[in-house]
Amino acid sequence: MLVAEAVRKVYRTGAEEVVALHDVDLVVHDGEFVSVMGPSGSGKTTLLNCCSGLDDIDGGRVLLDGVDLHALSDARRTANRASSMGFVFQAYNLIPVFSAVENVELPLLLAGADAKNARRRASETLERVGLGGRLKHRPAELSGGEQQRVTVARALAGRPRVVWADEPTGALDSETAEHVLELLRELHADGQTLIVVTHDDGVGRSANRMIRMRDGRIVTDELIAGAAAPR
Amino acid sequence: MIVVALVSLPFLYVLARRPVLRRLALRNAVRRPRETLLVVLGSLLGTAIMTGSFVIGDTFDASVRRGAYEQLGPVDEIVSANGIAAGAPVRDALAGFRDADADGVLPLALTRAAIATGGFAAPKAQLLETDFDAARRFGGDTHATGISGATPRPGEAVIGRDLARTLHIGAGSTIEAFAYGTTVKFRVVRVLPKLGVAGFWRGDETRANNAFVAPGTIAAMSAGRPGAPPQSLVLVSNRGGVEEGAHLTDQVDTAVRAQLGPGRYSIEDVKRTVLERADRAGNSLARLYTSLGTFAVLAGILLLVNIFFMLADERKSELGMLRAVGLRRGSLVGAFAAEGWCYAVISAIAGTFVGLGLGRALMAAASELFGSRSDDDRLTLHFAFKWASVQRGMVVGFVIAIATVLLTSIWLSRFNIIQAIRDISEPARRRPRRRASYLGLVAAVAGLVLTFAGVTTASFLALMLGPVLVLVGVTPTIARNVPRPIATTGAAIAVLVWAVAAVPAALALGGDVDVLLFTLQGLVLVGAAVVLVSQHQEAVGHLIGRLAKRSLQVRLGLAYPLARRFRTSMTLGMFALVVFILVMVSVFASMFSGQLGNFTRDVSGGYNVVLDSNPTNPVPFGALAREPGVRAVAPLVTTLIDVTSAPGLTDTRPWEASAYDGRFVDHGPPALDDRGTAPTDAAAYRTVLANPDLAIIDKFFLAGRGGPPRQSVDIGDTFTVVDTVGGTRHTFTVAAIAPNDFVQNGVLLGLPAMRALAGDRAVPSRAYVDVADPMGFVDHFAGRFLPNGGKAETLRHVVQVQLANQQQFFLLMRGYLALGLVVGVAGIGVIMIRAVRERRRQVGVLRALGFQARAVRAAFVIESGFVAVEGVLIGTALALVCAWSITLTDAFGSDIAFRVPIGSIAILVVGTFVCALAATAAPARSASRIEPAVALRLAD
Predict the structure, then answer these.
(1) Are B281 and B64 in contact, with CB atoms under 8 Å apart?
(2) Could you tell me if B488 and B477 are in contact, meaning their C-beta atoms sit under 8 angstroms apart?
(3) Is B937–A45 a contact, with Cβ atoms under 8 angstroms apart?
C-alpha cells in the first residue's frame, strides 16, 4: 500500500517560490489502477515524482508498505525503486545504446538477478508485450509504439509493487495508444498496481479510480463505475 | 595575414550579408559560454604548437646568430696565412685595400696558448695582437668592435670577458701564458666585453678566452721553437651592419682575391658561414619540433572534430527543423562554419600567445638543462622570436582549425531531415555507395602512380603513401562485394603491415631517412590501428564484459564507446597519437642511453683515454709513451677545414679533420661501420694512411641537428676541403665510414695527407692513449701538463657526456610532446563533460530505475578509462613495433639495439590512465548527482 501524507513540494527559482503540491494526501491500495488527471501545471508529474521517491519533498511523508521513502538515504531509496517500482515515461527514455532486451533486463540486474535469469525474464516480458521478435533491436530501430511497449516491459520485468506511468500514450497515435492502454488493462487485470499520470480522458477512464488535480491539490478522487475493483 | 583575410572572406560574407545565418552562428556561439571556451581551447592547440615550434627555431637561430655579434662583429671575411712571415705579404697587399663593398681591413696575429693564474686555468685560449686604434675604427662602428683603450704595451694584456670569468680575475691581475715551450707573464690592464673584435675567436667553441698582447709578443714567443706556427690574419669588414654585410661576401671575396693574386693564403667567409649555420640550426629545430608536434596538432584536430560532432548531435533536432523549414544544406554549412570561424579566429589569436609562452617555457627549461654543461662549446640560449614566425604559426593554426571546422560542417550537414527531427540515428550503410567506390578507385590509381614514383626516385613519402592510397582506395569496391567488416579489417591490417615494412623498404632503395619519415609512419600506423580496433570494438567489449562478469557498471560504461564508434575512434586516435610519439621518443632515448658500452667500444679501439693539448705547445707524446703504466700512445693532428663541395652540400661547411699515423692503427683503431672493400677495419685505416687522396668519414658527416643521420656522402664519393689557414685545397675520396664521432675527430686522414694540407701546422696535439689506470691518469693529467693546455678524458666519459646531452635533449623533447598528452587528457575531460550533458535524461532514467549514484559515477569513469587504456595500448604497441622495425635497419647505426624502457613506459601508461580518470572525475561526479526527477522533468 502506498500512503502519501501531507506531501508538500516547492520549486524555487531564485527568490521566487512556486508551491507545486499543497499538503497532498493519497492512499493507493495494492492492485489499484489509479489515473491522475489535470491540466498542465496542476502538479500531476510532481505528485508522481514525489510519491515514487524520484524527487525530494518539502513536507509530509510517503510510505510504501510502511517504509518512509524520504527518510531513506539516496542509496536505499534507489535500491527500493529498483526492487519495488517500475516506470513508463511519455518520451520512452530507453537507453539508446542498449538493445530492447538489454533495456528490459536492466531493472532486474539492478535488483540483483543473475544475468541468465534476467535475460530470460526480459525476453519473456518482451514476448508478453508482443516484441518477441525485436529483442536485439536498439531503440532507434523501433517505432514509437514499439519503444513504448519496451518501456512497459521494462517497468514490468522486475514484477514491481507499483508501476508509475507518466503520459504513457502522450507521444503515440490513437491506434498505438489503444494497444498500450490494452496492455495496461491486462496488467491491472493481473493485479498490478498502476498509477498513471495523463491528461487523456480515455486513458483516465480506463483506470478504476480517477484523481483530478488543480494547482497542486487533489480536487476530486472518485472510483470509476464499471472498472475492476482492487484486489 | 593575407591568407587569414582571404580564408575569412566567405565567412565574413555570411556574417555580414546573411542575417539569419549570422543570428544562428553568433547565438549558438554565445549560447553556452563554458562550452565555447572548450571549443576554443581545442582549436588553439594547433596554433600554440605550431607557434611554439617556430619560436624554438627562432631562439636557436638567434642564439647561434648571436655568435656573429659576440665573436665576429664587423668581421665578414678572414684572410689567413700560416706563420708570421707568410702573413707579411698578405698584410702588405691588403694594406691599401679599397672596395665599394668593403669598409675596412684589420691585420691581426693570433696563436693558441694555455693561460693560467692562481688556481684557475684556461687550457684553450688565444693570444692576439692588433692595433687597438685601427681595431676601433674597423667596420665604422666603434661599439660593434668591443675594443676600447690603448694597445697593450709589452708585459700587459687586455683580456676578454670569458677569460676573466674562466680565471676569476680582473684588471690588475697577473696571468701566465704558455706556448712554444715558453712562459710569459702579463699584467691584465683591462677587461673587454665579448663583442666583435674583442670576442674574436678562431674555432667552433662559443667561449672566447682571449688575451690581447703587445705587437711582437707572439713572434718573440714562437721564434725558432717547435709547435704550430701563429696565424697571420687580415680581417675584412663589408659595408653594412653585422648581419647585412654578409650579403656582399661574394663580391668582397672576389675583390680580395683579385687584390692578392695567387698565393698561400685562405679566405674564409666566416660571417656568412655563421649566419647560415644559424639558419640551419633554427630551421632544423623548427622542423623537428613541428614534425613531432604534428602528433599533438592532429590530436587537437580529432578533439575538435569530436566536439563538433557532439555539438551537432545535441542540435540535431533543431538542425533538422531548420532544414525542414527551408534552410538549404549550403546555408546550414555556412551557419555552422561561420560559428566555427568565430572560434577559429579567437583560438588563433589566443593560440599564438600560448605558443609564445610555450616556446619561452621550453627554452627556459632548455637553458637550465644545457646550462649544466661546462663545455667551451656550450650554446647559450637567448629567447627570441620573429614576427614572421608568430604570424606563420597563427596562419597555420587558423587554417588547420578552419579547415577542420569547414569539413566537419559539410559532413554534419548531410543528414536525413526526418530522422534528425525525430532524433533517430541514421542506420549505417551495409555497402559503400557506388560514388565512394569510384572515388576510391581514382585514389588507388593515384596511389599506384605514387608508388611507382617512390620506387624510381627512392622517395620515402611516395613509397609510404602510394601503397596506402591503393589499399584505402580499393576498400570501398571490395566492400561492395564482401562484408564491409572483412574488407575494412583486411585493408587496415595490410596498411599496418606496409607502414612497418616501408621504412626498411625505403632504406633498401636508398631513400633518405628523415624525421618526417617517422612522423608519417606513425600517423599511418595509428590511423590503421584505430580503424582496425574500432571495427572490432564489439568483440573487445564482449571480452571485457565477460571478464567483468557482466557487471552492470562495466556494461553501461562500455555501451556508449562501443555504440558510438566514430566518436570513440576519434578519442582513441587522439590518445594513440600522443602516446605513440611519447613512447617512441622514450624508446629511442633508452636505446641510445643503453649503448654506452657499445659506443665506448666503437670509439675506443685499443685505447681508453683521449687527450688534447695546445698545438703550439703540445704534450711530449714520446716521453709520455715511456711512462710506466702507459701501454700505447697514438698522436693525432687535428685542425679545422672548410668542406667546399660534397654530395648534397650547397654551401661551405667548417668541419674538423684529424690525421693519424701507423701507431694509431697498430694498437687497434676505432671501429668502422662500412670499410668499403677492405677486409678488416685496420686494413681500411692502413689503406687511407697509405693513400693521401683517401679519407674516413662518419655517419654524421655534414649532418645538421636532430633526427637520424642524413648520410648523403657514401663510400666512393669525393669531397673537397680547404685548409682554413694556408688555403691549400684537396679532394678526397671516401674509403670507409665510422659509425659515430663522439671524440670529434671529424674527417680522418693519413698523416701525409694532413701534412700536404696544413704544412707545418700539422703538429700532433691530440692522442689516443692506452693506460693501465685510466682514471688515475686522467686525474693527474691536467695538473701535470697545464702549460701544454693538456686535458685528458677517458673515452667512456667522452661518450657518457655526449649521451647525457642527448638524454637531456630527449627529455626536453618529451616535455614538449607531453603537451599532446595534455590535449588527450583535457580532451577526454571535455568529451565526458559533454557526454554528461547529452545523457542527462538517460542518467535520470537509470537513477529512476534504481541505478545507484556511485554506479553512475563508476560507469562514466569506466567509459573514459576504457577509451584511454585502449588508446594508450594502441599507441604503446605501435611505437614499440615501429622502433623495433627501425632498429632492424641501421638508420641510426648498426650498434643500436632494440630496448624497451619498461619503467618510463609504465610511468607513461599509468600516468596517462590516472590523468584521464582524474579528468573524468568531475563530470562523473556531476553525473552521479543528477536528480532523476529534475533530469526527466527538464528533458520532457
Answers:
(1) yes
(2) no
(3) yes
**Which residue is associated with the grid cell 635497419?**
B889
* Chain B, nearest residue to A144 by Cα: B422
Report the pLDDT value the prediction gives residue B68, as an integer from 0 to 100: 80
Task: Kindly state the DSSP code that residue B72 receives in the 8-state scheme.
Answer: I
Q: How would you label B864-903 residue by residue, b for 16+ Cβ within 10 Å and e otherwise?
A: bbbbbbbbbbbbbbbbbebbebbbebbbbbbbbeebbbee
Q: Measure the CA–CA gap between B55 and B59, rounded to whole angstroms.
A: 6
Q: Which of residues 20-49 of B touch A (CB under 8 A)?
A: none
Condensed to tens digits (0 to 9), the pLDDT of residues B756-797 reads 998 888 999 999 999 999 999 998 887 888 889 888 999 999
pLDDT higher than 50, residue B15: yes
Chain A: give the shortest CA distance to residue B561, in Å: 9
Question: In this complex, which of B560, B841, B853 lies closest to A93 when CB atoms are compared?
Answer: B841
Q: Model pTM?
A: 0.78
Q: Which three cell numbers stand for residue B711?
A: 648520410
Q: What is the dihedral of CA B598, B599, B601, B607, to 10 degrees?
A: -160
B562 touches chain A (CB under 8 A): yes
Cell reading at A16: 521566487
How confident is the model over B298-327, as a mean pLDDT?
77
With an 8 Å Cβ cutoff, are B937 and A91 in contact?
Answer: no
The C-alpha atoms of residue A64 and residue A87 are separated, in whole angstroms, by 16
Check if the beta carbon of residue B314 is closer than 8 Å to that of residue B838. Answer: yes
Q: In chain B, what is the straight-line distance between the N-terminal and C-terminal CA atoms, in Å?
A: 48
Q: Are B844 and A93 inside 8 Å of each other by CB?
A: yes
User: Model confidence over B601-651: pLDDT tens digits?
Assistant: 999 989 999 999 999 999 999 889 888 899 999 999 999 899 999 988 888
Block residue for cell numbers 670576442: B199
Spatial separation of the C-alpha atoms in residues A201 and A204, rounded to whole Å: 5
- Report the DSSP beta bridge partners of residue B104: B237
Q: A54 and B933: CB-CB below 8 Å? A: yes
Interchain CB contacts (distance < 8 Å): A and B = 89
pLDDT of residue B226: 87
ipTM above 0.90, yes or no: no
Mark yes or no for CB contact A81/B559 under 8 Å. no
Q: Rounded distance, CA B555 to CA B547, Å?
A: 11
CB-CB: which of B427, B842, B940 is closest to A95? B842
Displacement of CA B279 from its chain's centroid (Å): 13
How distant is the Cα of A83 from the closest Cα of chain B, in angstroms?
Answer: 8
Sign of CA dihedral A68, A72, A78, A79: negative
Contact of B413 with B333, CB cutoff 8 Å: yes
Strands (E), chain A: 2-13, 16-28, 33-37, 59-64, 67-68, 85-89, 162-166, 193-197, 209-214, 217-223
CB interface of A with B, residues 95-134, below 8 Å:
95-98, 102, 106-107, 109-111, 115
Instruction: Say which of B559, B933, B939 has its CB closest to residue A91.
Output: B939
